[in-house]
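quick one: 5,10-Methenyltetrahydrofolate bound model?
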Amino acid sequence: MSAQIIDGKAISTRIHTEVTQQVAARKAAGKSTPGLATILVGDDPASHTYVNSKHRACEEAGINSFGFTLGADTSQERLEGLIRELNQDERVHGILVQSPLPKGLDEQHALSMLSIEKDVDGFHPVNIGRLAQKGPEPLFVSCTPAGVMVLLNETLSSIEGKHAVVLGRSNIVGMPVALLLVRANATVTICHSRTQDLPAMARQADILVAAIGRAEMVRGDWIKPGATVIDVGINHVEDSSRKKGYRLVGDVAFEEASEVAGAITPVPGGVGPMTIAMLLRNTLKAAEMSDS
Ligand SMILES: Nc1nc(=O)c2c([nH]1)NC[C@@H]1CN(c3ccc(C(=O)N[C@@H](CCC(=O)O)C(=O)O)cc3)C=[N+]21
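yep, here:
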């Protein structure tokens, strides 16, 4: 094993600490306590776990959090009514609609109802559109993509001119990561399920971002020697030797890949913890924007 392991846990802990200090300083200066509202619809156990982690992280950072849990049968009107109330609520600086919503609800339409000043997940179409265009900057960048960029900036002295290959084109990861890499002056290739010869494309990458959602699909021989590999995948695979009956693996076959890569993120302990750290940072930013 030769690759440098990119320690997302350690980097995220540093960001938690920074946010915690800045929140304390705000409060000491008599400014408002940052507040995050989460909206969780339905009973997907993984979503409940993620939302609970976000509330815990807020609490540790001194950020208020307000959880709204709605039944799986919630109507679009009810969901959007709640969003409108939270848009008006002065205690709430950031609003997060946990994805995915149950079938039957129009996620894009719900997200378009968010006040863009409270869109700490960066999923409002205006914030995404600004990411894709020159002109006004997005107010918020989605947490997982922003976390990927922090990891790359911590690992590489420069992104400019590098060839980045993004595997996956989802709204929440692949597309925004590709746009951020373009903004950082990388040369970007976006690959997806219809790409011909995925391994050959991946092998051209100086920076390889895997966000496909298929356990250990990226093999060691897909990786250019010395490349920086960011694994966004979180896949549960059965493992009877574990207490929980499963273990988490990424989209990259870690052992093989770490023989070839220059640097690589582990799963867990890579991108995952960065997501929550960036959410705290965005919530603090939302509160700061509401000061003026
Ligand atoms: N509106 C919205 N915003 C999100 O930010 C959002 C979402 N919907 N839907 C689901 C995904 C998933 N997500 C994760 C957050 C933290 C970890 C995390 O901390 N993972 C740790 C530990 C994982 C574990 O041990 O279970 C790790 O990878 O090391 C992972 C995944 C946020 N998401």
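The first helix runs from residue 8 to 28.
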